[in-house]
Amino acid sequence: MVVRRAAGTPRKAAAVLALALAAASCTRAAPAPPQVRVLVGADQISLDPTQYCVNGTGHRYDVRAPVVTAAPATRMTFTVPDAVAAQGWSVQVFDQHFEGPIGTVRVDKGKAVYNGITTSDVVPQAFYLVVVEDKAPQCSNLSGAWPIGVIRAGTAGTSTAMPAAPSSGAVQG
Question: What pLDDT is attached to residue 32?
Answer without folding.
Answer: 83
